[in-house]
């Protein structure tokens, strides 16, 4: 695996013993290490460059206390800056409306349907919500089936209209039912494609306009590296989503996609998926992700 950033910095700062201040000359080698660590963690090249420029400005001229090694000070600056750039604090969902409407978006295979189940379970168990799942992935019969299985696994209801391909109609009918039957959250699962295409984007942006959701979440597989950033940008340009869900963080990625996406689309990451089971969901904590990226 990767050498972690603290170890790298320790190495590059060995030559600096006796220096009392961080200066341009002694910081250059260190910043290369920081950049390499970020690239290893799958952070987008431009984002990594921009990040190290900021860190450089913050670090320059800082007094190094005798109690703290320059390498430790740099790790702290880098860690704090990463945390800050990823939003600082966890960001909650806006669920004030009754029912609150959540629209899921993302490519096929990103983990949308799985996450829909996980979120429903979390809201039911921890916030005593009454969720209704809605099957708007109407092109693959298997997708509707999968959502039914997920709903049953987590013990919530699901709304489907088999044979109807009009997703706006399905979602509106589901919302009507939710109002009549006192559901407090409606989570709409939509169709994803293997790559971004115009038809899919039109469908989901029409759906968004028609149902005016409280939260539009974009789900992305953290293992897809640089592609994750491009996909996030394309979805955000069309949907202006409210938050990101980063799935498959149980894989061996360092999670640099979190920093890249946050920097490029400037929308908060709200949740992470950490496994296939319905319990494998966490609220996104920027500080923990900074730890993970740095290793
Ligand atoms: P969708 O096409 O976007 O609805 O994606 P699915 O929910 O069907 O997920 C695609 C695959 O990824 C399935 O095999 C899921 O079990 C798996 N998956 C989803 N989320 C996670 C996760 O956080 N970790 C892991 N390891 N697998 C996941």
From TrEMBL:
Any single Gene Ontology cellular-component annotation: signal recognition particle
EC category: hydrolase
Enzyme Commission number, as recorded: 3.6.5.4
Keywords per UniProt: Cytoplasm, GTP-binding, Hydrolase, Nucleotide-binding, Ribonucleoprotein, RNA-binding, Signal recognition particle
Catalytic activity: GTP + H2O = GDP + phosphate + H(+)
Residue stretches making up the SRP54-type proteins GTP-binding domain: 268-281
GO molecular function terms listed in the Swiss-Prot or TrEMBL record: 7S RNA binding; GTP binding; GTPase activity
UniProt: GTP binding residues: 106-113, 189-193, 247-250
Subcellular location, principal: cytoplasm
Subcellular location: Cytoplasm
GO biological process, one term: SRP-dependent cotranslational protein targeting to membrane
Domain of life: Bacteria
Swiss-Prot/TrEMBL domain comment: Composed of three domains: the N-terminal N domain, which is responsible for interactions with the ribosome, the central G domain, which binds GTP, and the C-terminal M domain, which binds the RNA and the signal sequence of the RNC.
Entry similarity comment: Belongs to the GTP-binding SRP family. SRP54 subfamily.
Cited function: Involved in targeting and insertion of nascent membrane proteins into the cytoplasmic membrane. Binds to the hydrophobic signal sequence of the ribosome-nascent chain (RNC) as it emerges from the ribosomes. The SRP-RNC complex is then targeted to the cytoplasmic membrane where it interacts with the SRP receptor FtsY.
Subunit structure as annotated in this protein's UniProt entry: Part of the signal recognition particle protein translocation system, which is composed of SRP and FtsY.
Protein name, UniProt field: Signal recognition particle protein
Organism: Prevotella communis
Lineage of the species this protein comes from: Bacteria, Pseudomonadati, Bacteroidota, Bacteroidia, Bacteroidales
Gene: ffh
